[in-house]
Structure formats: C-alpha cells, structure tokens
Design a protein that fits this description.
globular, 8-stranded mixed beta sheet, alpha+beta, Aminopeptidase, about 180 residues
Length: about 180
C-alpha cells in the first residue's frame, strides 16, 4: 500500500509537516550544506547542490509508492523551511523515522514537536505495530528529541551503522501504539 500525505498537513501552533515543493529548493540547499547535517546524515550529498535539491523534491511522490513519506518541516506561522522528517516502512508492521533541522531551528523544541506529530500520525494511520528511530550515540541533540517525543530507548546497537565508511554505534528507540494510547 503506497503511503499518502496527511490531508490536512500535520501541524501544531509551532510546526507544520507538509509536502515538499520546488519553492523549497533554495532553502533546502542552504539548510543541507550545514556541517552538522553532514556529520550525522551519511546519505546527504556533500556539498548539497541545487541539482540535488531539485532531484530530491521531484522524487518525493515516487517515494510514496516505495513506502517512504518525506515531509518538509516548516514554521507554522511563516512557512519558513526548518528541516525535514521522513517515515518509511522497513518491514512488515515496522516503520522508521528520522529528521534533520536547519541551524536556525535548533534548540527550540521544533524537532521534538515534529517527531511527536509524525509518530502519532504514523501509529494511528499506517499498518504498523512499531515505529523506530536510531541515532548516533554521540548525537546528543537527536537523542533528546527522541526522548522528548516519547520514544522509548531500547539500547545501543554496536557497530550497527556505516557513516561514510566508519562503523558507528547507535541508540535505538521505538514507539508502539500502547505508548501513545
């Protein structure tokens, strides 16, 4: 079953999770050239070019058919792009989420609010019994986001993730429907 964007978009009084548009390309390039994003997201091209952003936005609809929904994370008041968040089906009954934020959006609870919105939507509407996320053991900001969004820390997976050729330990978190009932 292909995924679909929630209609209306997920939002609270601070953040909105909406579909990407070509209007996001300049801000996407600016945001995705932040060294902290490249430090933690090995799949992000470095440097991140306008062509990378155009290709990304152009393929978002195709990814829905591949069981991946990718949200633009924006300021609910101004529409300014603050980051991105994705949810993808990784196995029968299991989805995984992840997020990134532009430097000017960090430290204000933006990612935690977005992760909370997306995780509750995923657990209510997708055919899943588990939503997981992992983050590098040294990415303390991402660990705080997961905890503030209500994810349960399950443990450390040693040498689990290859980040640009270096094996890294990650912290695995999960949410199950009973956690948010």
């Amino acid at each position: 079953m292909p995924l679909a964007f929630p209609d209306p978009p997920l939002r609270d009084d601070m953040v909105v999770l909406r579909p990407w548009s070509m209007d996001d390309v300049p801000d996407l390039v600016r945001c995705c050239n932040d060294p902290e994003i490249h430090r933690w997201l090995d799949s992000m091209p470095a440097p991140y070019t306008e062509d990378d952003a155009v290709e990304f936005v152009a393929t978002v609809a195709d990814k829905l058919r591949d069981d991946i929904v990718r949200f633009a994370l924006a300021d609910a008041s101004t529409g300014a792009l603050w980051g991105g968040l994705g949810v993808r089906i990784v196995a029968d009954g299991v989805a995984q989420t992840g997020y990134w934020l532009a430097p000017d959006a960090r430290g204000r609870g933006v990612a935690s609010r977005a992760a909370t919105l997306a995780s509750r939507w995923a657990l209510r509407t997708l055919p899943i019994a588990r939503l997981q996320l992992f983050t590098d053991v040294d990415n303390h900001a991402s660990i705080r986001v997961a905890e503030h969004a209500g994810f349960v820390r399950e443990g450390v997976l040693r040498n689990w993730h290859d980040n640009r050729g270096e094996r890294r330990d990650v912290v695995m978190f999960s949410l199950v429907p009973e956690d948010v009932a």
